[in-house]
């Protein structure tokens, strides 16, 4: 069984995950923390790294990125 909760706190998405198996009822707990960045901050980091940004998508289905509605920020680009 997987029990997962997530929240946005202090500029991070924080996840608490508890895994419990049928064979061993002792739960294993994991914590995950992912830093949130704005599109502009990512653009700056990409440029500083010498990369060229070609597109930003809001989902794995190539939807246009919308800062208010997109669940993902997916980049594609090249290394010149």
Walkthrough of the structure:
There is one protein chain. This protein has one helix at residues 39-48, and strands at residues 2-9, 12-19, 28-35, 52-57, 74-78. The chain folds into 2 domains: 1-36; 37-80, no CATH class. The longest helix has 10 residues, at 39-48. β2 and β3 (28-35) form a beta hairpin. The protein is mostly beta strands and 80 residues long. The chain is built from 1 helix and 5 strands.
In short:
This protein has one helix spanning 39-48, and strands spanning 2-9, 12-19, 28-35, 52-57, 74-78. The protein is mainly β.
**N-to-C terminal Cα separation, in Å?**
46 Å
Task: Return the domain count.
Answer: 2
Main structural class: mainly beta
List segments where confidence is low: pLDDT < 50 over at least 5 consecutive residues: none
* Beta-strand proportion: 35-45%
> Main beta sheet, described?
3 strands, antiparallel
Q: What are the main properties of this structure?
A:
single chain, 80 residues, mainly beta, 2 domains, 1 helix, 5 strands, 44% strand
List the helices and strands and how they pair.
Elements: E1 2-9, E2 12-19, E3 28-35, H1 39-48, E4 52-57, E5 74-78
